[in-house]
Design brief:
Elements: E1 2-6, H1 16-20, E2 25-27, E3 33-37, E4 40-41, E5 47-50, H2 55-64, E6 70-74
Length: about 80
């Protein structure tokens, strides 16, 4: 299973993450992206577990993010 984190201080608010994987990412009121888990937006710099059926989309987001602020890792 993958885990994903956004480094909000580097996020430019492009929104491509939300466009590609809206079940995993959301835009906050502050104009930057956040990760979501179980339908709710997590706090700044939080790590979210990625459901197996969305892993490929999250990896696509990592490749497409112009700010390169999204990090994934294998869950322990």
């Amino acid at each position: 299973m993958l885990e994903v984190t956004i480094q909000q201080r580097r996020c430019i608010g492009n929104g491509c993450c939300v466009d590609i994987a809206p079940d995993v990412f959301a835009m906050g009121d502050d104009g930057v992206a956040y990760v979501c888990e179980n339908g709710r937006m997590l706090p700044k710099d939080a790590t979210a577990a990625v459901p197996a059926h969305l892993e490929d989309l999250v990896l696509e987001v990592v490749d497409e993010c112009p700010a390169e602020c999204i990090r994934v890792q294998l869950a322990a």
